[in-house]
Every structure is written in C-alpha cells, then in structure tokens.
Write a structure and sequence with these properties.
This protein is an alpha/beta fold and 408 residues long. 49% of the residues are buried. It contains 12 helices and 22 strands. The longest helix is centred in the N-terminal third of the chain and has 21 residues. Helix 7 links the parallel strand 15 and strand 16. It has 2 domains: 257 residues, Quinone Oxidoreductase, Chain A, domain 1, CATH 3.90.180.10; 140 residues, NAD(P)-binding Rossmann-like Domain (Rossmann fold, 3-Layer(aba) Sandwich). Strands 7, 9, 10, 13, 14, 21 and 22 form a 7-stranded mixed β-sheet that branches. A 6-stranded parallel β-sheet has the order 17-16-15-18-19-20, sandwiched between helices. Strands 6-5-8 form a 3-stranded antiparallel β-sheet.
Length: 408
C-alpha cells in the first residue's frame, strides 16, 4: 500500500515545478511573496508555501481539493493551495482515507461563524510524501495514522499519555493547510503525532486502521477512564460509532455484562456483534428501569456516555450504581448539569472522561487490528470519494448513515 519511492520523487519534482511556474506566471520573480485567494479571502503566502497546479477562473492558483464549510449545512469541495512543509517538524501526508466524524456535525449544523469558510475533517490514514529536516520517526513512503490532535510527544503531558494537553498541541482545521477531508494535509509535530504502520498492509484493513485516528480511540478512552476490567458491569449510552466502539472496548477489557442503550436496530445489531450482552431501546424512566432490572436493581458499575446530550447524562445518572463511575466522551452539548449532593456526592459516584488522547491508545489497539482479531471498521456503512462529502454530511446529519469513509 505505501507509495513507491519513484512515485514520491515524481511528486516532489512536480511540486517544485509548480512553484516555479506559479512564480513566473504571476510575475513575482522579484518578490518573495504572492497572494492567493483561499477560502473566499485573500491570504499572503511565501512563494515556497504555494505549489498550485492550475490557474483558477479568477486568476488565482490552486493545488489540491479540500472540504470547506461555508455556512450551516453548506459544505463544498474546492481547490486550495497544496499542503507543503512550513516548519522543520512538519510532514506532508497524502490522504488515503478520511471520514466524517460525529463532532463534525456540530459546526456543520451551526456554521463556522464569522471566520468561515473553514476547512473541516480530522481523522486520516495516509502515506508520508515529505518530511521536515527535524523529523526522525517517519519517512516518505510510510503508511501512517494521524490522530485528531497534534502533539510533540516530549512534554510532561505527552509523557503521561495526555497528548490532548500537550503544551504545543494543535488540531486540525485551525490552519488552512491542515485539513482531514482533502487530498493531502500538512501535519505539524510529525514525530510526536504520526504513528507508522509497520510492514505490508492489506487494503481491506484500511477502514479499521482509520478508526484508530479517533473514533475507536475515543471509545477505548471511555472504557479506560471508567476502569473497565474483567467481570465489570457496563452500560453504554449511545449507538453511534463511538458508542459501538466503546462496547467493543469494554469487551476487550473483559467486561462481563455490557448493556447498550440505543434505538436503531441496525446499529444495536452491530453492537451485539461487538460484544453487547443486552440492548435497551427505551429512554427516560423506562430505560432506567430496564437497565436496573438487568442489574439486580442496583444499576451498572460503569456507565460510558457516548452521546453528548444532556438527556444522555441524565440517563447515566439514572443507571449508574452507588459507588460507580460515569465516563463521558460524547462532546457535551450543554454547559450545566447536576453534580451536587443528590446526583453524585451522596452516592460516591465519580465523573471522569473528556477529550480522548487517542495517540495514547494506538499502539495498544493496532496489533489486534493488523491481526484481524477485531474489526472496528464495521462502523463504516457508507463509502464515497471527495465529491460525495457534502452528501455524506447530509446522510449523517439525518441519521441515514452511521459513519462515512472518504477515499480522496
């Protein structure tokens, strides 16, 4: 699967030729800078950061295709400048597979605000095309997983495995050339961020490998924060991709009883394949009563909340056992919720979880994926190319797709 060295050399040459051609055609032979219209705005770029390969209709040059969010419900695939090295710790990765994440639906439904249009997407598997002079752990031709958060791998938080709190941390979409749903991307802090996949890899494993960039690691983070162990009683709230992979993660950690709360049969059927021992379709008081009936009236020792809605948190409070744990990894869509005497304190209930440092879990989960003993890639039920990304957002927003895999 990794690119051949000859192909990479050819791509490098084409990038250099495109830079030279752009400088001449734009008349900047005596200048170090040129302007490019990117995402609807004028940006000043050093010439060595622009490697476009064609002239746009308005006279500006573009080099690759990427997904841009223009407004609420308005996603477009457009030409943008090529991803190129900016810093000596950067890598450029040609994207083989990306996806639409559930968290992408929040900006999709609400718009990018005053800063739009903006790039979008943050989960990728790809092939390294170029590396900066300081990069040591990957090289051109390597197949790599790129987690959603960038980290240097050396600070005190990275050494603790809390890569999302890296003192030099950054994320996709914060810079116009760092984008997940595109043909290529620049990856900052390549040594601490990218994970090289060893050996030859069957292309059929690509979907499962892609889950390690975010969604599987997030589900595993829920289970790890909840301290799931052999024999644990676990309830998972939410039958989205994260919830289903939280089920798989709980099974990997040895949970004895796994109750999945979800209402979409195709998804809960997959949850059973991943290890759910029971499915509860009811919500509210009826759902709480059903879970308690399955747990001798006491509730679950561990609740993995993977939905992010306030109602899901309330459901978690209703099904957790005294002395139990609620582990939240669903992106909260609320700012206020009960955490006081009656809800948590009185019954010694612990609240844990947060943004998943998925880089910490890739090495733990990768061997099972490569061996084929687990298949987290089953969460992908729609496959498309870049042209299909706008439709992919509509399908996911309408709950007509569980998770979409994008092959640029």
């Amino acid at each position: 699967m990794p690119a051949r060295s000859g192909e990479i050399r050819a791509r490098r040459l084409m990038r250099k030729l495109r830079i030279s051609a752009w400088g001449l055609s734009a008349g900047f032979t005596g200048s170090d800078y040129g302007r490019a219209k990117v995402y609807g705005r004028q940006h000043l770029y050093p010439l060595n950061l622009l490697a476009p390969h064609r002239l746009g209709v308005d006279g500006f040059l573009f080099g690759m295709r990427a997904t841009l969010l223009h407004g609420a419900g308005d996603v477009r695939v457009e030409q943008v400048p090529d991803a190129v090295l900016k810093h000596p710790s950067d890598a450029v990765v040609r994207i083989l597979a990306s996806t639409v994440c559930g968290s992408d639906l929040y900006p999709y439904q609400n718009g990018p605000g005053a800063n739009g249009p903006v790039t979008i997407g943050h989960e990728i598997v790809g092939v390294v095309e170029e590396v900066g002079v300081e990069v040591r752990t990957v090289r051109p031709g390597d197949l790599v997983i790129c987690p959603w958060a960038f980290s240097d791998g050396t600070c005190e938080f990275c050494r603790e495995g809390l890569y999302t709190s890296c003192v030099n941390s950054s994320m996709f979409d914060l810079e116009p050339d760092v984008v997940g749903q595109a043909e290529a991307t620049r990856v900052p802090l390549a040594d601490g961020t990218l994970v090289r996949i060893p050996g030859e890899v069957d292309e059929a494993l690509l979907p499962s490998l892609l889950t390690l960039a975010d969604v599987f690691g997030t589900g595993f983070h829920a289970a790890a924060c909840g301290a799931v162990k052999a024999g644990s009683t676990v309830t998972v709230i939410g039958d989205g991709a994260v919830g289903l992979l939280a089920v798989l993660s709980a099974r990997l950690l040895g949970a004895g009883q796994i109750i999945l709360m979800g209402r979409h049969k195709a998804r809960t059927d997959l949850g059973r394949q991943f290890g759910a021992t029971h499915v509860v379709a009811d919500r509210g008081p009826e759902g709480i009563e059903a879970v308690r009936a399955l747990t001798a009236g006491r509730g679950s020792q561990i609740v993995l909340e993977a939905a992010g809605a306030r109602s899901a948190y309330d459901q978690a409070l209703g099904v957790v056992r005294h002395g139990g744990v609620i582990s939240r990894v669903g992106m909260p869509q609320y700012d206020e919720a009960p955490i006081g005497m009656a809800s948590l304190f009185r019954h010694d209930i612990r609240l844990v979880g947060g943004a998943a440092p998925v880089r910490a879990y890739i090495e733990r989960l990768l061997p099972d994926v490569l061996a084929g003993t687990i298949d987290p890639g089953k969460v992908f039920d729609v496959f498309t190319d870049l042209d299909g990304v706008p439709e992919a957002y509509r399908l996911m927003a309408g709950r007509q797709a569980l998770k979409v895999l994008v092959k640029p």
